[in-house]
Structures are given as structure tokens and as C-alpha cells.
Amino acid sequence: MSIDNLKGALPGYAKDIKLNLGSLVTTSSLSEQQLWGTLLATAVATKSQPVIAEVSNEAADHLSAEAHTAAKAAASIMAMNNVYYRSAHLIGGEYATMPARLRMTVIGNPGVDKLDFELWSLAVSAIGGCGQCLESHEKVVRSAGLSREQVQEAIKIAAVVNAVATTLEAETALATV
User: Fold this and answer.
1) Residue 154: what pLDDT?
2) What is the reported pTM?
3) Residue 30, CB-side half-sphere exposure with 13 Å CA sphere
4) What ranges do the domains of the chain cover?
């Protein structure tokens, strides 16, 4: 099971997505842990069973058990945070300044390099559509030394993995019509 399996499952009309997916793993400027953790965290964020299965299995060859767990934890905690902070921001007023009072200890102690966890959280936030989370995590990773290009790469990974999931889920649904 692999990225190649996902590429092979994409229909002809998604040729651009297939090419982009292939280039993600061959032209990365991210470290191996950053790349595969970003792929795994964003796969989990898509909620697509085939994407999660394929990426998780291949990521296991590139990530330690701790990093594999931390990437999934980034997707999990950001699923909560993206909804909360996006909503508080959109409602505005006093909601934007109220303390969340939500447990988020994994962010402070993710079990891997904090920079990598923050990068994975940023990529998941791109899928979750939370501007406040994107801004916050981008600031952290940039101040820790990642370049704009590396941040952009994580966002591109999120975009492509999300497109793969959307396409495969649509094909599954269309097959039953």
C-alpha cells in the first residue's frame, strides 16, 4: 500500500492531481519526518479511509512510532481547534477573546520535535480552513527557522492530499449511481 496505489486509483480527469501527488514525495525540501508526518496528518484530516490507509502504511516506513502517533495527534487536536478558533473568530466580539478552556496538552508535549508538530498542525489547518490557526502555526514555524517555501510546501501537501481524497470519495459515490 502506498502513494503509488493512490496515484493508480485516480481517474484520468485527475491527471494533474496524480502528477502533483507524485512530485510531493520526490521533490521535497522538508525533512523526511516533516514530509511524511505532513502527509499522514493531512490524510487523517481528510477522513478518507483509502487515503488514510495508503498514506499511513507507507508513512510507517518513514516515521518512528512516536512520529506516526504525533502526526495523528496533530490531525486530532486540530480537528477540534480549527472548529473552535474559526467559529470564535467568525462570531467575533467577546468570543474572540474568551479563553478556550479546551485541553490541548499535546501541542506543548507532542512526543516529537515541536517544529514538526507545528508544521503538521499548520497543514491540517489548511484543510480545516481556520485562518487564526494558520496564522498562529505559520508564525511559530517561521520563527523556528522554516522558510516560506517550506511552509508553502506543507500547504501544497494539504491541498493535494485533500484533492486526492475528494476525487476518490467522489468516484466511489459515482460508482453507486
Assistant:
1) 98
2) 0.94
3) 30
4) 3-175
